[in-house]
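re: ur question from earlier - yeah i can do the single chain one, its not a big deal. heres the input i used so u can compare w yours
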Amino acid sequence: MSRVSVLVTGGAGYIGSHAVLALKDAGWKVCVVDDLSNGTRQAVPDDVPFYEGNIADRALVERIIREQNVRAIMHFAGSIVVPESVEQPLKYYANNTLASHSLITTAIENGVKHILFSSTAAVYGAPEKVPVSEDDPKEPINPYGASKLMTERMLSDASAAFDFNYGALRYFNVAGADRQLRSGQRGKGATHLIKIAAETAVGLREQVAVYGTDYPTEDGTCIRDYIHVSDLAAAHVAALDWLTEHPRENLVMNCGYGRGLSVLEVLDAVDRANGQPIKRVMEGRRPGDPPALIAGNERLLETLDWAPAHNDIDRIVGDALAWERKLLEESRASAA
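and the output i got, formated as tokens:
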């Protein structure tokens, strides 16, 4: 199998930085482009070529492809906050759809053969049944999901017309941190439940808000499928392997464990890891949140050479908390 050179867009961000580590660990040549609007430069290893800039800058992307002989792209760059997408929809269509159009166009014109896209379970909207499968209706209920679905359609249409193949991995809820603590979520305005709860546990926040307690679920709070970020990164490497081995085929699949946990169940796990309860405050529902999203992951398990290694909420939460404690120690040391 050919180990082509891979450009990771958004590689200084949370999931992208873990994908960079997984690619390096597997022996791939990697480079990164990131505008650092959400990511941090220290998330990228020193031996990985780094370019600061936006993926919509076609001259920059063309230069990277040429200088690094890029033949595959893992595309993570984009905006990801559901409530913000409702408030600022045009930002999401610009960052997630228009910028992706520019990236895909530049990639095709410069000989890139494989594009692996960071998509989302938000493309399903509020599904009538869970777990949700890849072929179920795609009816996003927020601009975040809609903007990602548009990019999936672009990739599908473009791959039918041009000489490249693509994969779209639809994430559910990603959490945790690299077990060696090489990377984790650094949290510029983080909205992820486990990140916020871990920050509360170490004293950076006073409380964690529970948005909505009247959903049609057993305890009234939203249910999500939480996947460890390192398992997700490993799935990306396995998917890239598959794309290079099947250059005439495309890949669309859910990335999750196939089981759901409520907000309160997750917070119970944080309390266990922390050794004492954190303060919870019950709030009203947020716009754009479906009651339950759980991955049907049969295609993932049957297609890729991949199996989850961290499928345990206590491990996910424990790794997230360990990372938060490391960040706190670093902050105190730099202030001393």
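The two ends are 50 Å apart (CA to CA). not sure if urs matches, ping me
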